[in-house]
Amino acid sequence: MAGDYADVPEDVVARVRALCLRLPDAYEEKAWAGVRWMVRKRTFAHVLGVEDGNPRAYARAAGSAGPVLVVTFRVQGPELEALRHVGHPFFVARWGRDVVGMVIDDGTDWDDLGDLVTESYCVMAPQKLVALVDRPEP
Questions:
Q1: Which residues, 6+ apart, have CB-to-CB distance to 76 below 8 Å?
Q2: Which is more confident, 44 or 84?
Q3: Structure pTM?
Q4: Which of 11, 39, 46, 75 could bridge across to 125 with cysteines, CB 3.0–4.6 Å?
């Protein structure tokens, strides 16, 4: 679904869309802010813009009043602990025990983001769908 998401540039939406919609039964929808990708009504990736300190929770978590673009996803296991301590461009969201965010900028490693989105999908999807996914090596 292509759309006009005022707080996220279309080129960023298109790049994240390409990473997400290659996964089985994944779909896109407009979120309360930005765009989210879901599987079976469960969000596995969410991209949005932070500007003038809003949305506040995202601005606090990312450590920026903006303007900045962020994507959040789910992470588990040792990777969660590693990302908790790595710093920019990653941040820990203060909601959900396994939600991590990443600032999207000119230095974004889109291959890494693709791996992270895939793993997030695998955290949220039913096992029968996870079995269909070609997962990155740990």
A1: 98, 119, 123
A2: 44
A3: 0.91
A4: 39
